[in-house]
């Protein structure tokens, strides 16, 4: 799978509205056949920072995502609300989902 984590720093005046601003893109991406997950979290230390954790089944699914109409629309709609270019970590992982964190196993 392709595992991606991206940090988005939002302009302060839009930070509280970011979930709604990004909703259409989020819902469309979650509806993609190859999308395994697409989840936003807000930083506890910086209220203007959102972290996106996303995964796609394979390279083809990742390519379909960035070539989709909703991705192209997001490229136009989202940047005016950003304080800086998002930062990203993107890598392929030889698994199909989340693994358990054995060191903190619930017993």
TrEMBL record:
GO terms for molecular function: monooxygenase activity. Residues 2-90 form the ABM domain. It comes from the Bacteria. PROSITE patterns: ABM. Gene3D superfamilies: 3.30.70.100. Transmembrane segments: none annotated. The keyword NADP does not apply. Keywords: Monooxygenase, Oxidoreductase. This is Quinol monooxygenase. It comes from Amycolatopsis dongchuanensis.
């Amino acid at each position: 799978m392709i595992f991606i984590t991206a940090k988005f720093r939002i302009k302060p005046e839009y930070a509280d509205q970011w979930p709604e601003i990004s909703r259409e893109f989020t819902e469309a991406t979650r509806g993609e056949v190859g999308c395994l997950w697409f989840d936003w979290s807000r930083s506890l230390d910086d209220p203007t920072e959102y972290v996106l954790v996303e995964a796609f089944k394979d390279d083809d699914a990742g390519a379909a995502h960035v070539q989709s109409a909703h991705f192209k629309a997001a490229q136009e709609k989202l940047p005016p609300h950003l304080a800086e270019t998002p930062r990203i970590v993107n890598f392929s992982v030889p698994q199909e989902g989340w693994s358990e964190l054995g060191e903190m196993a619930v017993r």
